[in-house]
Amino acid sequence: MSRLSPILLLSLSCSLGIDAADLPAPAAMGSALDPSLIDSSDVFGLVSELMPWDPNVSGADDAFARLIERDPWRALDEIESRLRSQGDMGGVIRWAPRLAQRLPSDSRASLLNALALAAAGQTAQAQAALDQIPVDGPVGTTAMYRPLARAFLLRAQRRFADALEAARQAGELDPRHPYPDNLIGRLRIEQGEVDAAISSFEDAIAKSDRFVPGFTNLGSARLLRRDDQGAHQAFDQALAIQPTNCPALIGLATLDQLESDARMAATRLLACVDADPSNLLARQRLVPVLLEQRDYAEAERHARALLDQDAPMARRLLGDILLRLDRPAEAREALVPLVSDDQAGYLLVYADLVENDLTGAQQRLRILNRQVAAAGPRFLELVVSIALGKEPTKTEIAELAKAPAGQPLADLITATALLSSGRFDEARPHWQRSESILAPFSLIGLEARTLDDAAFKLERPSFLLGFALYLKDLQPAAGRAFSAGLAHDPDSPFGRYFSALSQLALGDRQGAIKHLRHALIAAPKFFAAHTLLAGLSLETGDNAQAIEHFEAARRLHLDASVLVTLGMLHERQQNTDEAVRIYRQLIADFPDSFIGYNQLAWLYARRGENLGKALDLATRANEIQPGNSGVQDTLGWIFFQRGEYPQALEYARNANQIAKGSRPEILYHLARMDYAVDKNVEKVKKTLGDLLQGHPAFDGRDEASSFIDRLK
């Protein structure tokens, strides 16, 4: 199911037996479309190729450099051992050239040096090194280095079939060495044979259970198959061997992003950058995550660190960040050198708009739209045309609608034209078709008879400019445009609502609340304004106001998220009877959703009452949504309350495994159940003490603290 807006539910400090990620988005919520040319998959998202193969676990080790000088044979043995056991090709690349200089007549050192050059992409030097080494002589592992180096060279030439054959020859010369299997897996990935690649990586790991690149490549291949749980497990195994392994950290960060956990993704990517500041891929992926969190200062720092390593991408990222920081002149300075870059040109359009240079923006867009058939630039060109006083033709709007993702933008252009002339009934279907990009806006509760009044007309040019800037998250500029529109139509519920969103994005909650209250004076049945204001009331701790606005929203529209949030709020306020009534309504109105069943079951389980009914409800929730951590936790607590501890433990462990140990309330329940079975006072006191120290707020914290006190 869709993730509920943080404004509505993540401000509730207690999950009450359910993960907020499971809750349905209300009708007023959705996902905004940023009509940008920048493809986020360039810098983040599903891997299109595997992570860098091998971690550099050797590093700048002065002691190892001294060992090479003192005892090169021992150093050579150590490098080979690490390559075999841990897949440390980084160490081979770093130290093999120096060893070849120390042992110029040793074929083992020479072949290992050729392999290092080939793996590092120095193809000409690698081929020259191989040509100087006699073909006959070395056997076993040493002989294996020649075809393995050839496999790297052939791979660089994209001769994948020949490279695969060379890697197989290497494996035949040393059947117990895992690296040929690892390279075979990589080659199979590049040929699109993901299942065969997974098998090869598993073969490599079977030969050495500490073979780090085998685990990271296995995780990446599973991710390509969208086996997220298997990928997570493989990356975790790599980190258990090497806690700062960058490919594993990047892989886990990718999974975090897929699960909408930007905070954890940033934490992992920062750990990689700290361990290896030269890791380009980690920084490339870190910057968009920081942008998502609106940590612009940190994003700017890392984008600038990329400038020398990858100028075009770094300049685009830096320009984007500077625009969000309302520094268009600096953004322009970063972007102007990319004269033939369409993405940079698109960002320069936004720089013109931020500086209110509409003519300059129009000129750039005319050039850009001749080169790129994308909805974003076409939409902006029509918006700028309207702001300059020229109404777009039906043909231009139709062309926008034909572009990928262009239909809702075209409907928005049409809807605003109709609304600005007071023709709300005609505008309504166009507004509704554009709601996917207007989220969390919704027309629910807005009626023609209310909006026919001239005071509710929309000042269209300013609104469209503000909305275009809002979509690109250029909030200071968006706020200025919306304010200009409100100067013309101060009572416009549309203008007030989007001004509130812009203020909220800037962190000005009081400003947002002021706009929403004004919108509700003008349109008392404005569902989206009620739900947004209710969420803000939650954040400020005003539960009574939150209930008032959610109740108003409930009377306007049947919405699952509004009902479940109301139920949770009534529980918080100790209004148990009202919470039970709301959850029963949720079950009746949404019988195919597991949430109502689980919430009512959790309410009973938490209070230790109606446990038979609670079990029936939770069982039904589990039938509808099997494998959900919140439902498993509810079932566990029901059995705990019934004194059936083995079954309680089984469900709690399942819940914790599904949640990957991330939910402290589940960990609390698990500790209580462990204690009920083994009565180990010291163990439970330590477990709960660590939990309380690591999690300052969670559902059950007071209970956990009280339980520890009773044990003393």
From TrEMBL:
<dbReference type="InterPro" id="IPR019734">
    <property type="entry name" value="TPR_rpt"/>
</dbReference>
<feature type="signal peptide">
    <location>
        <begin position="1"/>
        <end position="20"/>
    </location>
</feature>
<feature type="repeat" description="TPR">
    <location>
        <begin position="560"/>
        <end position="593"/>
    </location>
</feature>
<keyword id="KW-0732">Signal</keyword>
<protein>
    <recommendedName>
        <fullName>Tetratricopeptide repeat protein</fullName>
    </recommendedName>
</protein>
<dbReference type="Pfam" id="PF13432">
    <property type="entry name" value="TPR_16"/>
</dbReference>
<dbReference type="InterPro" id="IPR011990">
    <property type="entry name" value="TPR-like_helical_dom_sf"/>
</dbReference>
<dbReference type="InterPro" id="IPR051012">
    <property type="entry name" value="CellSynth/LPSAsmb/PSIAsmb"/>
</dbReference>
<keyword id="KW-0802">TPR repeat</keyword>
<dbReference type="Pfam" id="PF14559">
    <property type="entry name" value="TPR_19"/>
</dbReference>
<feature type="repeat" description="TPR">
    <location>
        <begin position="212"/>
        <end position="245"/>
    </location>
</feature>
<dbReference type="Pfam" id="PF13174">
    <property type="entry name" value="TPR_6"/>
</dbReference>
<keyword id="KW-0677">Repeat</keyword>
